[in-house]
Amino acid sequence: MQLIKRFTKGSLLLTAAVLVSGCSIFGDDDEEPKFAVLQPISEQVQPKVLWDASVGSGIGEHFSRLNPVVEYGKVFAADRNGLVSAFDKSTGERLWRIDLRQRMTFDEATDEDWFSGLFASPFPARISGGLVARYDRIFLGTENGDVVALDAETGDVVWHTEVNNEVMSDPAVGEGRVVVHTGGGKVISLDAETGEEQWEYEYQTPMLTVRGASAPAIISGGIVVGDSNGSGMVLIADSGQQAWTQAIGKPSGSTELERLADVDARPATQGTTLYMVAFNGELVALELMSGEVRWKRDYKAFENMLVTNGRIFLTDVKSHVYSLDQSGGIERWSNTELFGRKLSAPAWHRGNVVVGDFEGYLHWLDSETGDVVGRYDVGGDGVYVAPVVDNNVMYVQTRDGDIIALDTQSGNE
Known about the structure:
37 strands; 4-stranded antiparallel beta sheet; mainly beta
């Protein structure tokens, strides 16, 4: 899994994988276990599978945040190579499937077939950004630099736009636009109806960054973005001009790795408060309109946060899980029992916090204490992205392309 990338003269060079052991890149792991061995738990929830299906070959060992999405009575999912499927969310029946490598549309303006080189088999589409459901469409991005809109009912391609930069995080969709944040330091706004580019904002990226880019968020006429320099910013949605910027991560240390300060997690909001966290920096609560810092705490993370019920739940770079108060950032509990297991971002399920790990286990943590109260092995070469929950049903996508729908019962039910 490639997690660090280096830029030089505009080209992308991938360095050796780091954090593959799940341990901190800043410590010597020779004398310590690389990851936690699972221990017996006091099981209080009993997971059960409702249905399972497959969406191609998954993502393999590649870095990806490709996620399923539940909307319009369907579960939409994709694999890295270009297969996109829609399933009935109650039964798992496949409703449609398309292969973007084989979908070619003649462009009268250029007299060319798009997808005919980038997506033509055997070359993968490298889908990594999305999926996002809005406006009766499914939006996705690729590492090849494509943004695609599909009809949610049929899977037909509605439009396709080339942005010439890797799209490795979810597009933000709303207010009539689709906004992507690319790995090369560009924020690009497209018309949601046509895919036509509206504006582009670009910032200077450092030589060495964490692979990926934070998913942008569209909030009240602004575009919230975390960049690879350790800053959070708001851009005016209509123009792309910067409204404010604020330091989140603070590069420090004697090596390039130690100075990594990327803000790769999706910004989270509650009311007028914006929460952002850096890979090697801090968790910061900001005033949404001005960027003024309300409070900050020392946490290092690149996975998305879960903000709900007055709490912030996060998974840090060591696969420790934390619960904090939203109002002041006071830590309520921490769980270090799953260290090094490459935990996913947390999800909320029936009052518990759920994370997946690199061996394919799902772990249910009591939201009040942090104790592990449930566990289930979905296999599939590991869970790499947070489960999606809809009406108490949890949908999980594994590295090898399995889609599993689960629910749980408590010991009292």
